[in-house]
Every structure is written in C-alpha cells, then in structure tokens.
Amino acid sequence: MKLSSSPSLIRMIATHAFDSTVDQKELLRATDIDPGTLENPDTRISGDRLYRLWKKAESLSNDPHFGLHMGESMKGNPGGNLLFALMMNSPTVHDALDKFCRYHCIMNDAIQPVLDIEADEAGLSWQMNSSWTDPSRHFSELMLSIFQSILNHLAGRMLKPIAVCFRHAQPEDIHVHQKIFPSAILFNQKKDELLFDKTLLNDKIFLSDQRLLEAIEHHASNLATRLGSQHSWSSRVLLSIEKYMQGNKPVIAMVANDLAVSVRFLQNKLHEEETSFQRLLDKARKEKAIFYLKNSDMPLIDIAFILGFSEQSTFNHTFKRLTGMTPTQYRQVK
After folding, report:
1. What is the number of structural domains in the chain?
2. Residue 117 sits in which domain range?
3. Is 324 part of a structural domain of the chain?
C-alpha cells in the first residue's frame, strides 16, 4: 500500500523545525522535498519522505522535547485544514473525534487515530499503517501532545485526562510532560494513549454549524474516497459493502465478485492492511446505524433490516458490542 501525506502536515513539521533553530531549507533539501510543491494543496508527499523528514528534523533539533513542543504549538487546530474544519463544525466531541479518525487519511494515511470507548472511559490512541517499525519517543510524544491540544480545543478548556500512557521508558526530565498533560503520566505501557472520562464525548461544540458541516463532509468524503481508491483495498471493500447493505448482509464472496478478485486474494490484501472483512462490515454497520439513530425516528426493527440483520436482538447485541450502548440508549443521549 502506497502511503502519503498532505503538504499541510509537511509544512507543520518543517515550520516547527525552523522555529526550533533548524534550517528549513536544509531540512527540505536533505529529504528531497521541493519547497514549491508544498504550496499545491493537491500534492501528496510519500510516506517514506515523511519518515525521512521527521528523522532529519529530530537529528537537527537541539530540543530535548521536540515532539512535545511541536504538538503543543499546533494548539489542536492547524489553521485552515479541512480535517479540523470538519471537527469544529461537528455537534459533539464524539462526532468530532469520529470524523478525526474517519478522515485522517486526508492529512496523512500513514497514521491512523483510534477511538476506543469502554464502560466509564474513552481512549484516543494511534496506529502506524506504514513500515515505520520503531517510531521514536519524540514521535509518540508528538501524537499525544496533538491529541491533548485537540481535546482542549474541542472542550473549550484545559482538559484533565484520566491518564496519559506512553510506550517508551520515562525520560530523565519530564517537566514539559507535566506542563502539557495535567494528569497521571505513565510510561512503559502497551500503547500510546490518552484516557479520558467518557462523559466528555457528549459535550456540545461551541459554534458548530450543521449546514457547513454537511458541505465540508461531502467534500471530505469525496477526497477520502479518491485517495483511498488509489491504493486501499479497505476503502474499496467499505464502498462495496455500503452498496450492497440495503436489506442484505454483504458477504465476502459478494464483495470479492464486485471487485473482480478471488476471496482468498481479498482476504490476503485486507490482512496486509491489518484488517478483515468482518471488521469492515462492523465499521460500515456501526456508521450507518449511528446515522439512522441520530437523524431519523425510524423503528429499530427497520434499521436492523436495512443493515442486514435477521433479528432486532442481533442488531442490539452487535451495536452494544461496537459502541458500549444499546441502540435505544444511544438514541436517548444522541
């Protein structure tokens, strides 16, 4: 899978590195990036070049907290970015984070944010979709610093998470960590994750605009589909599932036939992208169910039928597994 990043992300890294006493021209030249290409919003920079840019910026910087300071400087809203316009016009924090995860490929498809919701808490973590087998401490700290800034911006206040978890060992000096993260800071954890109270997800976003959101999301959806169709089997499968999921339960043989490949070939391609047909079916059903529950008074039995469930009880069980709430509970708090 050929991964890429938008010029906006490259500009963020290069600009911050410049502010941190790194020569911006030297940084771009060393990673074979033409500064002129960064002015074209349709340009995509390869994942390999992004990796080289990041490693070079780290090596040139004299900042022992390079990643933390870069994430903090973004303030959760790097100006004018389509992804963040989507988030800030979403009705709730939950909707905003859902769009952050769903449309992150617009900015960078080498990295995938993940929102996990448990009984009392939610976690925002990230996965690497590329060959970056050993992301540095600074990159991990960049990601969680960005997450903290995003949550602060969405909540309209300095948010105090339950805990901030890092995979790497504790550095000797953590005073910058303590300044950015007003919570328990844990090291040597299984994954990089920001844990926060689940009730935050229900918070309304100040000045969100539903009509503007619909227009922006239409553009974002088309852009994500165009980018995904270039190299992602997962995106193609999701589109095929949505096409067939109208009172039917799409099966992998049906989708493989639609994409003109064998079932085995499709399974192997999804495995390479670290997913499966069942995960993608769950994702499509969850998103469609949430849409109907939030935007219509359609009876649950009808929603279950549209999503291809033979019984409403099966729909109820699946929806609760995927969201932590029954459809009725979700509709009550939407």
Report:
1. 2
2. 67-202
3. yes
> pTM for the full model?
0.66
- Among 317, 248, 18, 273, which Cα is nearest to 128's? 273
Q: Residues 276, 277, 283, 285: what is their CA dihedral angle, to the nearest 10 degrees?
A: -160
Indicate if the alpha-carbon torsion angle 307, 308, 313, 314 is positive or negative: negative
241 and 188 in a common domain:
no
The CA–CA distances, whole Å, from 95 to 52, 55, 79, 208, 252 equal: 33, 33, 20, 11, 29
Give every residue of the chain whose pLDDT is below 70, as ranges.
1-9, 15-22, 36-44, 46, 74-80, 129-134, 228-231, 334
Measured in whole angstroms, how far is the alpha carbon of residue 240 from the centre of its chain?
22
Any domain includes 49: no
**Does one domain contain both 197 and 102?**
yes
* pLDDT tens-digit map of 261-308: 789 988 998 988 889 999 999 988 998 888 888 878 889 999 999 898
CB of 284 within 8 A of CB of 245?
yes
Strands 193-197 and 121-128 come out as antiparallel
pLDDT digits (tens, 9 = 90+) for 165-200: 999 999 999 999 999 999 999 999 989 999 999 999
Helix-helix angle 312-323:277-295, to 10 degrees: 100
Between CA 187 and CA 169 the distance in angstroms is 5
